[in-house]
Sequence to fold (230 residues):
Amino acid sequence: MTKIVILTGAGISAESGIETFRAEDGLWAKHRVEDVVTPEGYQRDPKRVLDFYNERRAQAASVEPNAAHFALARLEAEHDGEVVVITQNVDDLHERGGTQALYHMHGALSGALCAVCHHRWPAPMQMAIEDPCPSCETPATRPDIVWFGEMPYEMDTLFDHLTQADIFVAIGTSGNVYPAAGFVAEARKAGAHTIEFNLEKSAVGNQFAEHRIGPASQTVTDWVNNILAT
Ligand code: BV8
Fold:
């Protein structure tokens, strides 16, 4: 019974119409990272940050999961071993594609967090900085998202999954951001077979035993079909 652990990045959502970070026309071409994906940026100009995530929350709500999301849900439903998806993405396309065992290690657009008392609640579609926290009533609302310099969620659990993986797969991630980019090394150390699905080799591509180059909607679907056929 092989356990399969899958890490996904912005590239798995690209064919659904959600821009990635590092493509020429991507998010980092329009916004400075330090302004919108750091706690300092939020302190400096919370409205700019909330607007950035309001825009992405609206975009995510307007697109659909693609064949790669559905293929991963089918793999989880039909594979006889455990399948776990760890996503760096904050959209809800894996959920809407049917994946159950899912970790949003960088948080999710669907979550709101109080920057003062750390209360969490379901995010409204549009966040406003004057929204009072439902718990402490301070107007300090922020998206429940992990910014640079903040600790990704459930890291102990994620490392447990990595050490138990028989197959570790990374789909649509450029391998620039840690600790996610270090997962392949952890999985290899534990003896997993490693496969990278991308349009090109990522920054940690040399650490993978196998590469499937092409659009994830095609390469992931083909991979799942032949895993389930054997
Ligand atoms: C932490 C928020 C510690 C959500 C994000 C020096 C060395 C090592 C590390 C560091 C360092 N200096 C600083 C660090 C730490 C830092 C980091 O890694 N910096 C990098 C830039 C060097 N990391 C952190 O700060 C992390 N926290 O380390 O905490 C700590 C310790 C103790 C106590 C407290 C803290 C937190 C990192 C999380 C930051 N948040 N986003 C959001 O707004 O979305 S990062 C953001 O970029 C995403 O979340 C994602 O994780 C990340 C990478 O993006 P990708 O998903 O890879 O997307 P990208 O566009 O880059 O690539 C897309 C890929 O898809 C491409 O390869 C492309 O070819 C491919 N593709 C495109 N289309 C397709 C496709 N593939 C297949 N099919 C297609 N159709």
Observations:
- The mean pLDDT is 96.
- Residues 9-11, 14-15, 20-22, 26, 37, 88, 90, 106, 145-152, 172-174, 176-180, 197-200, 202, 215-216 surround BV8 (CB under 6 Å).
- The chain has two domains: 1-16+64-106+152-230, 19-62+107-145.
